[in-house]
């Protein structure tokens, strides 16, 4: 466990789930609305807290009700706000975020009316007590002093900087950090066609740094000083929500670097954790297994002489698992005759010689091979197949939806 201090904005995210992004002058109804803490550094620390670290956020807080709400939410998440700077003037920064049904994109409108942390406030913090210092690449004039004091009093403490977008004067500070995180948004704004080109350009300004450049679903590229530019592809997953995926990546990579892992190992873990985040809404409980990660059964428990009934974790779906030669078949446990489970009245009888199984309600017989009804009241109808995957250990899982 490490003590991590991060400097950055704290934002109230107002999230609206919509069917599609609205066109101009369109009136659109959202089907869900929720509030949560936001801001790159705050999100990263929330993930690092789940990974077992002690985290402190240096940010500014307004004096309004929203600031009190944010403080309560972050404290409940385990983040330390004792180093926050209170501002008498200004309002809590707010981001209004539209997320369409497929979750693969998000549109954000920011409202900012609060001064950021000043150097004088940062200089009073006992930064020597921390094992890692992380900075959002913003507030450049104040950031210059913060990095200088960190380098002077904590020369051996790792310092990282997130370069999210171009800011005047920011590139003159890149030679003061050990790890530099950037991504597609910054690269394209600077005219770079891809991540390797961005890293090559940054290398001249940060010869000492480990540089990591993420590129959405294409993965991440990285380079250690004196090394080649390498690539870690992104995991292919069913995306539900990308909001905070970059912050999650940063937290995962930083976590592994703190453990002494190589840069390649850190980038790979960050990519895996970001993919895990994209499969759920929000940042809570990232280390818990998702329903798709819980097995239905093991192939050793499934035979061709007995139907195994399994419920899909997290979904109101019952399945029939049964062996067909060397394969395992999975069907939705629903008879097409009257739409009742096949085991509604009794167990599902199986004829291993005919390779059929029977609905217990009205004696409809279905082929194990393809689910076709070959005898009974729904002759010619089919059971609905259900996608499954089997890992190397023989565990059977409900396959992610396309």
Brief sketch in words of this structure:
The chain is 22% helix and 28% strand.
Topology:
Elements: E1 3-7, E2 11-18, E3 32-38, H1 40-50, E4 54-58, E5 60-61, H2 65-76, E6 85-86, E7 91-100, E8 107-113, H3 119-123, E9 132-136, H4 140-153, E10 159-163, E11 179-183, H5 184-189, H6 195-203, E12 210-214, E13 220-223, E14 230-232, H7 245-258, H8 263-278, E15 297-298, E16 308-311, E17 318-324, E18 327-332, E19 349-351, E20 356-358, E21 365-367, E22 373-375, E23 388-390, E24 395-398
Parallel strand pairs: 1-4, 1-9, 2-7, 5-6, 9-10, 10-11, 11-12
Antiparallel strand pairs: 2-3, 7-8, 12-13, 13-14, 15-24, 16-17, 17-18, 19-20, 20-21, 21-22, 23-24
Helix pairs in contact: 1-7, 7-8
Poorly predicted residue ranges: none
The number of helical segments is 8
Structural class: alpha/beta
Q: Report the helical percentage.
A: 10-25%
Strand elements, count: 24
C-alpha end-to-end distance: 38 Å
C-alpha Rg, in Å?
A: 26 Å
Overview of the structural elements:
This protein is of the alpha/beta class and 402 residues long. It folds into two domains: 3-288, 3-Layer(aba) Sandwich (UDP-N-acetylmuramoyl-L-alanine:D-glutamate ligase), CATH 3.40.1190; 293-398, Rieske Iron-sulfur Protein, CATH 2.102.10.10. It is 22% helix and 28% strand. The strands form six sheets. An eight-stranded mixed sheet has the order 4-1-9-10-11-12-13-14, with helices on both faces. α2 links the parallel β5 and β6. α1 (40-50) packs across α7. The two termini are 38 Å apart.
């Amino acid at each position: 466990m490490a003590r991590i201090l991060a400097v950055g904005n704290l934002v109230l995210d107002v999230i609206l789930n919509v069917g599609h992004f609205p066109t101009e002058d369109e009136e659109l109804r959202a089907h869900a609305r929720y509030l949560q803490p936001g801001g790159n550094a705050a999100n990263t620390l929330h993930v690092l807290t789940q990974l077992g670290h002690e985290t402190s956020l240096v940010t500014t807080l307004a004096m309004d009700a929203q600031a009190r709400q944010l403080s309560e939410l972050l404290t409940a998440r385990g983040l330390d706000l004792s180093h926050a700077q209170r501002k008498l003037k200004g309002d809590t920064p707010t981001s209004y975020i539209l997320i369409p049904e497929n979750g693969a994109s998000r549109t954000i409108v920011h409202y900012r009316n609060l001064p950021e942390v000043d150097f004088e406030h940062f200089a009073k913090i006992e930064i020597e007590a921390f094992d890692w210092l992380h900075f959002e690449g913003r507030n450049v004039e104040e950031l210059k002093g913060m990095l200088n004091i960190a380098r002077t009093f904590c020369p051996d403490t790792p310092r990282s900087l997130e370069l999210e977008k171009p800011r005047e004067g920011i590139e003159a500070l890149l030679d003061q950090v050990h790890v530099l995180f950037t991504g597609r948004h910054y690269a394209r704004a600077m005219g770079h066609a891809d991540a390797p080109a961005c890293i090559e350009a940054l290398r001249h300004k940060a010869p000492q740094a480990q540089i990591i450049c993420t590129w959405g679903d294409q993965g991440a590229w990285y380079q250690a000083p004196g090394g080649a530019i390498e690539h870690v592809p992104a995991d292919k997953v069913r995306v539900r929500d990308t909001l905070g995926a970059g912050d999650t990546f940063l937290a995962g990579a930083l976590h592994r670097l703190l453990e002494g892992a190589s840069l390649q190992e850190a980038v790979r873990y960050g990519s895996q954790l970001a993919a895990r985040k994209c499969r759920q809404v929000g940042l809570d409980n990232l280390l818990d297994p998702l329903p798709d990660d819980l097995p239905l059964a093991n192939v050793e428990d499934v035979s061709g002489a007995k139907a195994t009934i399994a419920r899909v974790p997290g979904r109101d779906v019952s399945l029939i698992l049964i062996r067909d030669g060397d394969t395992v078949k999975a069907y939705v446990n629903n008879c097409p005759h009257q739409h009742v489970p096949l085991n509604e009245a009794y167990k599902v009888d199986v004829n291993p010689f005919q390779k059929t199984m029977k609905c217990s309600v009205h004696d409809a017989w279905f082929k194990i091979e393809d689910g076709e009804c070959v005898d009974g009241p729904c002759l010619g109808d089919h059971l609905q197949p259900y996608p499954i995957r089997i890992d190397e250990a023989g565990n059977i899982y409900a396959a992610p939806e396309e």
